[in-house]
Design a protein that fits this description.
The chain is an alpha/beta fold. The protein has a single domain, classed as HAD superfamily/HAD-like (Rossmann fold, 3-Layer(aba) Sandwich), CATH 3.40.50. Helices cover about 35% and strands about 20% of the residues. The strands form two sheets. The chain has an eight-stranded mixed beta sheet. Strands 3-4 form a two-stranded antiparallel sheet. A hairpin with a 5-residue loop joins strand 6 and strand 7. The longest helix is centred in the middle third of the chain and has 20 residues. The chain is globular. InterPro entries: HAD-like_sf, HAD_sf, Pyrimidine_nucleotidase_eu. It catalyses: CMP + H2O = cytidine + phosphate; a ribonucleoside 5'-phosphate + H2O = a ribonucleoside + phosphate; N(7)-methyl-GMP + H2O = N(7)-methylguanosine + phosphate. It is found in: Cytoplasm. Belongs to the pyrimidine 5'-nucleotidase family. Monomer.
Length: about 300
Amino acid sequence: MLKMIPELNKATVRMRDRGQVETIIRNMQREGASALQVISDFDMTLTRFAHKGKRCPTTHNILHNTNLISEECKAKMSNLVAHYYPIEIDSSKSVEEKIPHMVEWWMRAHDLLIQQKIKKVQLAQAVKGSGAKLREGYKSFFKVLKQNSVPLLIFSAGVGDILEEVIIEHGVFDPNVRIFSNYMDYDENGVACTFKGELIHSFNKKEGALQNTHQFVHDRTNVLLLGDSLGDLDMAEGVQDLKNLLRIGYLNDKVEERREAYVSSYDIVLEEDETLDVPNAILNYITAGEGTSPGQ
């Protein structure tokens, strides 16, 4: 398989069980694109964690970095991150211990954003100047999925309105893409007045996310899952008649501290890798067929 997918031998790649990974990929290749769906996180998974030594913004950060919100609001948002982010990535705490803190974080952050009276028409311009970047290789990633009619379900704890604008800005909001995120609701003047639907945070993306997608992913029993946190691992729960699941995790920072937890949880771990090289190579192998060079 290394001949077919040499990207698996990159220095950034770690695998707990290479043989199991190869078996899963071969099973997926055998059943082809028609049996496949891709489930992915967005911030720091499909988007870059950093570029040229500088952190790239998440969907929340994009708003934070504009003049759409006040300096007072920015300071309060920064304080929330300083307090809650260490809890989110603390490998000594269980998911159950973290969840109440995450709910509190998201609710407080959303309340602050709604107080800013953000207008929907301002969001596209906010994204244009934000520096938000999809990972290197994103064009190939979205193109292969679109050409092979493979559903891409994006589960994000970020701001859905901003997420959509980022994908639109990159020209890849294709018909096979579905987004489950925290969307703002607007009044008759186009001003954000609340967040609608159930709150989605780092550790509850599976809850209800798949309940309205059965028709969209009918009979697609193989899942390629992409995430960057341990909370992303269960995004495929609820997939009916799941046969093969390959979980790829981006380990973006605090690598030494978090490596063991990631390698023991994800099938493939990509350390400080700002590309989609490995997912692209696997997708191309699955969709191109045995004996065909996966290419780029």
